[in-house]
Amino acid sequence: MQTTDENRQWSSPSQEQSILLPTISQEVPAAPRKPKKDYLLDEKLQEYDDPLDDNVVALIDQLDITSTMDEENDDNEEMTHYLNSLVEDIKSQEAEEGMTANVAFDMAVMSRQRSEGERPHDELLNHYLFQIPRLKDQIMWSKYITAYYKYADVYNFPSWINPSYLKDVNGHPPEDPTFNFGRIWWPGPREGKKSARPSITKPTVVGGGNKPGFDDRMHFTPAMCQYWDIKSQAFSNILFFKLGKFYELFYTDAAIAQEILGLKWMGKDQKAHVGFPESSLCHYGKQLVDLGFTVSVVEQMETPDELSTRKQQGATQDNAVKRSVCEVYTRGTLTHEKMLGALPSYLVSLYYGGNTNNCSTNDGNTNNCSTNDGSTDDGQYGMAFVDVVCCHVQFAIIPSERDLRNVLGHLCPKEVILNKTTAKKSTIELIESFPCPPTIVQPASGAADSEQVGYDILKAYLLKCNNEDESIKILEWIANVPKEGFRAIEQLWLYLQDVLLAERIFTCGSFNAFEETKNHLVLDAVAIEALGLEDPIASSVTHQGASGAAGQGVVQQDLKTGELPSLFQCINRCATVMGQRQLRQWIHYPLLNIPQIEQRQRAVQFLIDRPSLVSEVGQMMRKLPDLERQFGRISGDLLKSERGAVYFSERSIGRRISSYVEFLKDLSVINDVINRIQVSLEDRGSDLVDTGRVAALVKETYNEALIMEVVRGSLVRIESVGGGTASKNEFRPKTGIWPDFDEKDSAVQKLKDKLESYLSKGAIWKTLGIGRCSGCYIHSKYRYEVEVSEQDWKKVQRAGGVMTSTRKGYVRFQEEVLQQMVNELINAETEAELTLHPWLSDEIRLLHQKNDAVIGTLKVVAELDCLMSMATYALELHTWCFPQFVDDDQHIFLDTCYHPIAMITNPRFIPNTVKIQGTKSIVLTGPNMGGKSTLSRQLALLILMAQMGLPIPAKEANLAIFDRIFTRVGLRDVLAESKSTFLIELEEVLEMLKHATHRSLLLIDEFGRGTNSKEGTILAASTLKYITHKINCITLFATHFPLHNWLCDHSCAAATERGHPCVTYQHLAANIHQDTVIFTYKLADGRFPESYGLQVASLAGIPSHILQQGMTDE
User: What's the CATH number for 337-354+379-518?
Assistant: First the structure.
């Protein structure tokens, strides 16, 4: 039984729900049933072994599925057959889709209705739509359903997007397992116009609901037919559709954008419709992408005049200018500078290959894929990832889920391509558990049946896009990639094709194996979070930092907001965005090689000794934009040998040429920076050993001759026109460089001369047939407007002048001949500009041939910037030193050392001296709030900074080299994985026991507190014994448990006697004065007798009578 429009009961979304939640009421009015057959229905439903709930039974009642059967048929054979098959459908759907009984029932009934040509019942449809397993997690699906039903009675939506009739391009409805939400069916212009119904009443206004007044013909205008041709192929995306100077959104997209972006409704027609100007594209696009939407940007590919020309030539009968999708925005594929922060924005492709003992490559060789300790996991992953702006592709084989967590923790990707149907559930939960989880997207269709077929397809694509030498270089790299890695690259390539970036990446990109985990101290995701290496919104550092506002400015802002700054924020003094990204890389991957660390130390010391050089070079570097990304964008312009999209707010080719010229000039600035540093190096004489890494960068890595050859060779072929400030200059090829442009530009100059003569010699007054008026021409709202006084305007108006703009006391006008001449000039300029696209492409190709030299130069700048940042950081410290490294895995000496973050937030921070020699395990005791956790983190941060080559806040330091830092500090649970705090503690300690070596550093804080004190003590003691005996690495074990009874045979005297490793006790001292705890925060030998929990509770403000009552009860 169908409900009418009047019977629908919709509820408006609350302010909290907004458009993000379904708004359909689930109240189902009771419908009469035929009592004669009730018992048959009830009996049949009882046969189902998973009883349906009351809501579904009510839906059965409302469907009245017995009403169409023959009432005189006493044996009810038809009904029995119907219900039997219905129950079978339900069971089948449950098995295949993992649905609940209720959802499976909805799906089975709807499938029956559709197969019989009926429209599904509205309430049943909505009961099911939000629960379809394949679709319910897609943000666009729920927003589309909600928006449709919210505005269906207000605006005229075309019938094919009604959820009741929605089907994909293959005719499958949403409940079909193969339904493709991204590509839907629409009737097309010819069929649609035949069935469109005209308006028969007054058009509906917002707030109305007069359905017969809707005019379906509005969906089939030339522009709307274009819209639906594109939208039907990207229905799961928000479509920004270009009309003139505005991007406009229609139908459910408009409803979604209006509520999320706060856009105003446009027009007074029946179509849901919002829009915004061309200049706001990045602003609104970024907001939608941050919420998880995918945005397709449709641009005009020709002007109206070009369309008219095509029609006059008989080349087309179109009534709308050409349009096509030019950009697709997702979280991991943004390229516009205004939409990005300073840190990398990675798109990661993961391919789960299952459990194998080795990783075979495409050429039959094998690569070892075991974990770091030689153990195997239950499956390995191929991973490929790319920074789409810089066009840098890397791949890796990830041998275990643990390693995957670590790598993703370092990368902080924005988007992960992963097939949820084949990936392990734990992998999906792992990705979703990150503080800022990436968006998980399904791989695009089109993967080859075998690696060899896929390789051949990719080979053909590369040969089509690149020259043969470039293609062979990439193909050789891919041929040596293990199979899992190739599948990940294939997934990445297919997805990049969908977002229109494949040609750019695979033509202009660089390809490397990801090797950052080799020869570096390993920090897992837990340690990164526990040590506060960077803000989890991480990636929130903006370009402001590159203009000198980084470092202390960021820290001071955090102090104002009460938030503890990250290590990155505390030490970042970089002048460029490139330096910031490099510094983050150094923080995540400290060095293991002592000579490399000492080389950095010498470089930083060289710069510390020359503060004026650091200041001068820093000022020069602050003028540099993000050249790595700018070079990526310029390389992408290599592909644009034609104009492409039409933009109205700025001349696209002019902007691109200016960007290219500015990049060349910035390379000249880099050359000046390096020459200035070379002067300082030469001042030291011939001994360059003490300069460390600086000399290697400036003298060996940087190729001045090659870079300046490119810069000077390109700039000599370009001239600046327009005068004014440099930012307003326009650039073009010098005369004789590009003959096609010279020819067109000559025609432009002739037309300008003609206009000048027409206006300056008074010919315009003769055309108007009036005497000469005092006036001049200007370029204001329009080009070549003639300005006259208001008094003269009266004569001009009578003679046929057309007002174009005004200012106080004056009127500006044009007349027919002048307008015709201006249009001729504009057309000639357009033709001249079209010749510049292939010229610029050729210029960029010359630059791209020196790709390795340019990328190497930018890396030199980033590394120099990091070294200067380290030097600046040291100069701001009142106490600092460079640690000395010893080849002894049992040695830590830090004299008067500070916590690098806490010393900034708390100027009265009390330093400590830490000495660990001849012992491995330290049991750290002390009162609550005494500073145990702070000291643990302090030790780890100072070791990490030391192995970066960074000066540390201490008077003196002698350290061993550590290969990994493990942490079990702080409390947290993972609700997404249904893991308690205690389980998380156990898993983190288990990771240490599995993977720590004798050169690792373990920080364990209050392990075992998640259970009772007896069990906690046993857990803590047995764990510490195992670490001491089996792993034998330096461990800081902070606890309140009385472990001395359990570890008596590990006291230094007993251990020496038995030949066992030694366990010592240290504590952070405190005093009691008048029942009040006074913390000294000083590290001392021995155990601390009490925890002083009640005194700390009193300090925290717990009323004394409550504490006294508790002690009385005890």
Answer: 3.30.420.110
- pLDDT band at residue 128 using 50, 70 and 90 as cut-offs: low
Burial class (CB in 10 A: 0-12, 13-18, 19+), 190: exposed
Q: Which of 139, 154, 2 is nearest to 64 (CA)?
A: 2
Predicted pLDDT of residue 114: 58
| Superfamily of domain 886-1111 in the CATH hierarchy | P-loop containing nucleotide triphosphate hydrolases (3.40.50.300)
Q: In this structure, what token pair is assigned to residue 211?
A: 């359905």
In which band, very low, low, confident or very high, does the pLDDT at 208 lie, cut at 50, 70 and 90? very low
Structure-token pair, residue 83: 């219900």
* Start-end of H helices in 480-551: 483-498, 502-508, 525-531
- What is the distance, to the nearest Å, from the Cα of residue 521 to the centroid of all Cα atoms in its chain? 26
Reference 821, options 765, 871, 754, 766; nearest CA is 754
- Model confidence pLDDT, tens digit, residues 69-126: 444 444 455 555 555 565 565 555 544 444 555 555 555 666 655 555 555 555 556 6
Question: In the prediction, which pLDDT does 7 show?
Answer: 33
pLDDT at 871 over 60: yes
Select the CATH number that applies to the domain covering 572-641+651-734+836-876 from these four: 1.10.1420.10, 1.20.1070.10, 1.20.1540.10, 3.20.20.80: 1.10.1420.10
With CA atoms as reference, report the closest residue to 944 among 515, 530, 398: 530
Per cent of the chain over pLDDT 90 is 34
| Segment (H or E) for 1100 | helix 1093-1100
- CATH fold of 132-194+217-305: MutS, DNA mismatch repair protein, domain I (3.40.1170)
Sign of CA dihedral 766, 767, 768, 772: negative
Structure tokens at 846: 């010359």
Determine contact, residues 362/451, Cβ cutoff 8 Å. Answer: yes
The rounded distance, in Å, linking the Cα atoms of 370 and 352 is 15
Task: Check if the beta carbon of residue 652 is closer than 8 Å to that of residue 619.
Answer: no
pLDDT of residue 356: 45
- Which of 250, 241, 243 minimizes the C-alpha distance to 157? 250
Cβ 519 vs Cβ 595: under 8 Å? no
Q: What mean pLDDT is reported for the chain?
A: 79
In this structure, the strands spanning 238-243 and 730-733 are unpaired
Q: How many residues does the chain have?
A: 1114
HEC assignment per residue over 77-115? HHHHHHHHHHHHHHHHHHHHHCCCHHHHHHHHHHHHHHH
Cα gap 677→614, rounded to integer Å: 9
Distances in whole angstroms, Cα of residue 238 to Cα of each of 243, 312, 326, 432: 16, 35, 14, 24
End-to-end C-alpha distance for the chain, whole angstroms: 69
Instruction: Check residue 1002 and give its pLDDT.
Output: 93
The residue among 298, 411, 290 whose CA lies nearest residue 348 is 411
Evaluate if residue 321 carries a pLDDT over 80: yes
* pLDDT at residue 860, as a whole number: 93
Residue 1067: strand pairing partners: 925, 1084
Please give the residue that has the higher pLDDT: either 688 or 379: 379
Helix (H) or strand (E) holding 789: strand 785-789
Question: Residue 597: which residues within 8 A CB-CB, separation 6 or more?
Answer: 591, 885, 946, 947, 948, 949
Beta 323-329 vs 295-300: how paired, if at all? antiparallel
Q: Is the pLDDT of residue 491 over 60?
A: yes
**DSSP assigned state of 734:** P
Can you tell me the distance from the alpha carbon of 69 to that of 77, in angstroms, rounded to the nearest whole number? 10
User: Amino acid identity of 224?
Assistant: M
Tokens found for residue 1041: 């448990």
Q: Which residues contact 250 (CB under 8 A, 6 or more apart)?
A: 224, 227, 239, 241, 271, 272, 273
